[in-house]
């Protein structure tokens, strides 16, 4: 893979403004350099925030995304900007988590993908959301995401 | 999903009194926005308390509930009020944990559900109760609940 | 210390009902068997719950109480019943934590006492309350209470 | 389940002496309130101690017992007294751990049972003993016991 | 303290919009119920986010605020809304952390206050900012904030 | 220090029976090989058990003993047998912890000694007892005992 | 199993010298008291040390051995002496770990055995070695060894 | 295995310069002393660093490599030098991690190999890469790599 | 503070090459926005690497820098580049750690500064280096750096 | 400091045999490059082993040594060989720990030194030994050694 692989990228290494909404964000991709094998890529995004569509209050989550590429990898800076675009966007926990996964599937057409959304507690009770696009590819090595369970106090 | 989805809800965003008993609590539901896929929703409720039916003394538990929705999601504020309704209700550990799961199944008719009840020690020996409604749906991603084992002291 | 030391106790070793309110609870005491020295007694009470006086919703806390006895020790079962008596009592976090300490001081007249109240989060932000009755006695060994800080998720 | 369920119990809610030997201990049972489902009950007993039959020195263990009930649950106070009856009884680590499991099986005839015995180190080398009565029931949810491995120092 | 203590509050128990900017936020106060003693109140706010004034990118922090009240306590919902008001506001790490403390001092005139700002890493290097308004009151019990140090990976 | 230093010891390297009571136990000592300096010796004894004098039920504790020797060190096997002698002895938590310290002071006449008793929970509330014989010697290095606080569940 | 079971043992309860070499060490066995079932015995040996055959420098490891007995259990004091016999013996990490397992298989003819060797780092890179004698017996309960991964610093 | 096994090694026990580039590094091998069995060798390398090919900035990773040998083991000092050779070499996260695994496969022709690359965060989002050469050999004991998930702050 | 504060900065927001040597690196500063108070700034740099001047092998460290500003803050991107400049520079552990602190003192003239260097183990024994420029300013809040001690394995 | 500083060293960068006894070990020193300041050097040695002079059995310890240099630093390879020389040497826990500190003081004449010896348990009770040569230099930054307390099991 040479540097020219990245010549079409519009965001990497550039000063980029945060997109106003997920619809405005552009998920960019680069070719998968190891298409001959099934390997797992994991992104851990502890800085996710969105808006509750009913109350207008901010929500926060720790997100972990695992995928196996087909032809394309998602470029990580564009992923960061996409996730940042939820900052002023209304979205429920269950809906939002699964929707991010579907958007990434649209952009990359991966062999397989899953997302874990670990939301900060509301009313004393946090919600976690877990989804995968199907059974993982055979022979894939897929470690646990290892996010600690919520413990309250003490 | 628009906000009108929530127009029938009686408790969300309202000042609500704690129901006097589990029978009085109303579990409200909203449509599942991603019925096309099997995803897991996890609630962690570290603030559960009930009454021992023999001694009248309070009991405490850390509960974790996992489910896969069919048509309905349980609305989280109504869940919180339902769990709070055990506050002055007599219930044994094994019985109570499984009964909560059955009540949620009645309300949501989920594809699958499980509950872990991690009770505070009595007589130096805590009891944990684990139940699932059946084998998990194939291809479901189902992380461990990750609640630490009880360690006594030292 | 002989068993007769305990003959006046009304709650220890008896089936006891939970007092309806802190005012009804009786804190019983026993003679301090080691009045000649300053030693620290620590109670850890992870099962505390009260009611928010504004919303009527339950609140939860993990409480740790440290004291140095003068003439009296608090009998632990009566302490447990006293703490249990807040179950249906309205009390704010800051007020309630300090008030428990003052009540214990009234009952025992200890050389010194402190309380740490580690409350479960509300609105994403837990409150901790720490108070001691004065500077600790000179030469007292006073370990940290060691309750983990709140971490949210991730 | 009504309170009359417990009327035949001889130890619960009573002042009970520690049995002198495991043979003298009585394991009491109550009806399983959820016979229609396979759920797991876990007891964690960090206060187990017995005597080495060769040297007469005390041994200590942290025990965790998991089972799936058939008709009966073991009543937890009688379990506590049974475990306490090993206090002055000679028993080797491997033998004792498995024997406790077999006794519980005799008393409850459970669908399935396992025991983990985590013994304190002797000669710098702790012994753990793990046994289950057979493959766990299909569809049972069976979390790891999660007892930390021994680490020596550092 | 009666409920009338809270009658002048404009935000507690109301649906409240997030203020557009820290200047618009109103920090409300209530009378300190225990003015006769020095006790510590700790708020842990793991959901803080602001905007980098140079790049426009979001920043995240875990904030812990400790204070000893004089006449007033800060009302916790108004604190939550004040912290939320930084969501679209540009502020540097060092400046912002200390400025929040100064604003709270203006609103409450506490006997003493400190803030710990634990910022998420940028360029692989997180910044923490620690400030207190002066030496803590004599005899105050002031536990460590106990936020884990940043560890990178491995 | 030569091996002859140990010739008077009656328990080390011998098969020894557990004393029936603390009064029967013999605490043996050896000369302090480094009398010219103040150094700390710490014993950690996680295998302590005694009997509740009121109920006859077993109690358990994790004990940590720190001391600075004068002329004598306590021989560790005799310490083990002394602690083991509480196995069938009735003793309350506060009394017993301080009494062990006093007995060690009688036997060794150390420059300084402290004990931390971390008792397993009864009624959901563990008791810790901390005592030292006086302010530690100046210039002594005295690390925290570092025993984790009790956390209940979750 | 009676005490006579142990009459043929030459090392248990005796003062024993450390064997000079693994070849000189004698692994003693006792009858398996529960031959009717498959249970797991785990030894954790955090005090293993050997010599690098090339450089003569000491190596250190934390070893964990799991096995399912057939007719025989290994006597734990003889195991301790066998492991201690590597103290002045040259052996490479990979070779030594597997060789210990093979020797134990020779001595006990167990139904199944595995060993985990967690070696201290050399050149910044620790080596772990994991081996099992075959697939574990069906229906065996086999917990993870749970030794933490190496983390370097930070 | 005698010391002559190592006579052909050019780097072990020698002062060796860091290779300028992965292509210059020589992976040396030694015969597998236990070819008759499938055992796992794990290297943990927390000191990996390379250069971002686009920005020229350093990247850091914690690498864990697991393999089952066929005829050859990789000599650990040559592995260390090979990994060190990435110090001034440009390589992307996904590409680099998989490429190291492929190079090791070329050098050793192992029965099976996998690599976990745990990269330090860039833009707040770390990337992990996981690959294995195929399904693990049947009957192989393959523990989890146990590297903690990234947690940000708090 | 306005953005013009940063107009003289040459590295922030620019693509910057890693300096070839610490002498070439430029530490840039910005005005301290809160000169009226003593607050602490902490940088955690887990990605430090240098070269051993004797063997030419890479060394790694986790560095934590604490300071109290006078007129100037160090700009964090220039700090990152300065630390990165040790990548191909020879420096011993003790010397290098203290030298970094002295260089920062030259650049900022802070009221006070300290550095903790936590180096990865060599020969099984890691070295930590701790230095501060003098006693910390009175009334400064100075939390522990909280880097875990090295534990080897197990 | 130039490389010539190290020209007189006899062990660094050489193949060195382990000394047969502490008396034979040579502690080498190098000039302190930062004599103008008081900084702390910490060595963590988790691989210490010696022989019990009474029983001939091996003992193990995790040692942490802190010092402030005057004219000399101890060279770390010679320290490693010195510590390794206890491998076949008889020494009691309390005596040995303090003796190592005294030997280092003889060799370096440091401004100040302390040692923490964390010994593996014997008879279920580990011994820790802590000594410092005097009160630490004023203004020295001296972090806790942070070795976890012993916990037994569970
Ligand atoms: Ca390819
Ligand atoms: Ca809790
Ligand atoms: Ca859908
Ligand atoms: Ca007394
Ligand atoms: Ca977080
Ligand atoms: Ca039923
Ligand atoms: Ca032991
Ligand atoms: Ca008052
Ligand atoms: Ca001396
Ligand atoms: Ca690291
Ligand atoms: Ca072979
Ligand atoms: Ca970053
Ligand atoms: Ca200012
Ligand atoms: Ca260890
Ligand atoms: Ca100098
Ligand atoms: Ca324990």
UniProtKB/TrEMBL annotation, chains A, B, C, D, E, F, G, H, I, J:
Span list, region Disordered: 1-22
Subcellular location: Cytoplasm
Gene Ontology annotations for the cellular component aspect, listed alphabetically: cytoplasm
Record bears the keyword NADP: yes
Protein's UniProt name: NADPH-dependent 7-cyano-7-deazaguanine reductase
InterPro entries named among the record's database cross-references: GTP-CH-I_C/QueF, NADPH_dep_7-cyano-7-deazaG_red, QueF, QueF_type1
Pathway(s) where this gene product acts: tRNA modification; tRNA-queuosine biosynthesis
Gene symbol of the encoding locus: queF
Species of the source: Denitrobaculum tricleocarpae
Record Gene3D superfamilies: 3.30.1130.10
Polar residues: bias regions: 1-14
């Amino acid at each position: 893979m040479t540097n020219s692989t990245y010549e079409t990228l519009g965001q990497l290494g550039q000063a980029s403004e945060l997109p106003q909404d997920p619809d405005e964000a552009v998920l960019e991709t680069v070719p998968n350099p190891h298409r001959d094998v099934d390997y797992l890529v994991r992104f851990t995004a502890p800085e996710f925030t969105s808006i509750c569509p009913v109350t207008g209050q901010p929500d926060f989550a720790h997100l972990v995304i695992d995928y196996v590429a087909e032809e394309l990898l998602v470029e990580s800076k564009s992923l960061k900007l996409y996730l940042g675009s939820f900052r002023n966007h209304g979205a429920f926990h269950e809906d939002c988590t699964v929707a991010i996964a579907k958007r990434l599937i649209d952009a990359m057409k991966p062999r397989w993908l899953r997302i874990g959304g670990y939301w900060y507690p509301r009313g004393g009770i946090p919600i976690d959301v877990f989804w995968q696009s199907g059974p993982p590819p055979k022979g894939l090595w897929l470690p646990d995401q290892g996010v600690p369970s919520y413990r309250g106090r003490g």
